[in-house]
Amino acid sequence: MKPTITRLISLDALRGFTIAAMILVNYPGSWSHVYPPLLHAEWHGMTMTDFIFPFFIFMVGVSVAFAYSKRLDEGVPKAGMYKKIIIRAIKLFVLGIFLNLIPDFDFSHMRIAGVLQRISIVFLASSFLFLNVGWKKQAYLGGGILVFYWLCMTLIPTPDEGVVLLEPGRNLAAWIDRMFLPGKMWEGTWDPEGFFTTLPAIVTGILGLLAGRILLSNFNENLKSNYLMSIGLVLVLIGLLWAQVFPINKHLWTSSFTLITGGAGFLGLGASYFLVDILGKKKGTSVGIIFGANAISVYVLADVLSLVFYGFEIGGQSLNAHFLDLFTGIGLPVNLVSMLYAILFVMINFIPAYILYKKKIFIKL
């Protein structure tokens, strides 16, 4: 079945809104005053915030399917694509390390793992899988990885303790980080973006590839939407059942977490595709499209701008501290003020994103 390749407004907008949400939850006015839904779950369980990163990784897979289907149809040799894929993955990985180093550039405490690093690995794996493996084998591989990860995490005792544990810093993934992950780790003795937990994150990218396969098929539009939402519902239900023996946990990127968030990706994409691309309800999508046009660049820019908006001091206080003092002083709840500052920071990042979009400058990192 030859795929039909068209640009989807729903996908572009979803990617942009996801980046905006990542900035919103990463930069509150104060980490001491945040509404609970805007925080990650401390360990087992999940909040709405825990859906954001896997949702973006899911869309990396969808985007890979669209981008490389088009190149294959144009007859671009795979050898040339491999080279560009590897170069792009390296650039994303190095950029992630750079963001971890600023502003002090203390190489003795350099963190190798990180958000962009995980995205780069998922992008690399998803791209090579898409170019070389059919969708059925992708599905089998994804399922096999999740089962393998589950069995390893729940049956193999951590060598330093001799028992199976799923506690912070006391689990097989944390032990692997301590043994093999160089540099500083986010939590001291383990890292939420560590080596072993990246394995199920790759499955999130594979789920995106499968969703992209559906959108690229010659099924009629309504059937595509129905397939996406039906598969999403099944994945969520399987994930909830799996959670009874392998808890939902973003830090460990457990198999249940992978299926629930991946299923949510299918559901969200299917609903958005139906509303925006089929029914034509495009009102309100422009903000997402503008953010999504330079999604990674905006994410990097937010990290750089945070040095000013959270580190630059006037009168002995940072800008966010002044903001909190000003608006709590007139009686607003401190949690609300903290969120308002985060919204303001998202709006500030929208300005350069808008300028780039209007000038048709699309930075490919």
Describe it for me?
This protein has 365 residues and is mainly α. The chain has one domain. The longest helix has 25 residues. Keywords: Membrane, Transmembrane, Transmembrane helix. This is Heparan-alpha-glucosaminide N-acetyltransferase catalytic domain-containing protein.
How would you summarize the topology of this molecule?
Blueprint: H1 9-26, H2 52-73, H3 78-101, H4 115-132, H5 135-155, H6 172-180, H7 195-216, H8 221-242, H9 255-278, H10 286-293, H11 295-311, E1 313-314, E2 317-318, H12 319-328, H13 334-358
Antiparallel strand pairs: 1-2
Helix pairs in contact: 1-2, 1-9, 1-10, 1-11, 1-13, 2-4, 2-7, 2-9, 3-4, 4-7, 5-7, 7-9, 8-9, 10-13, 11-13, 12-13
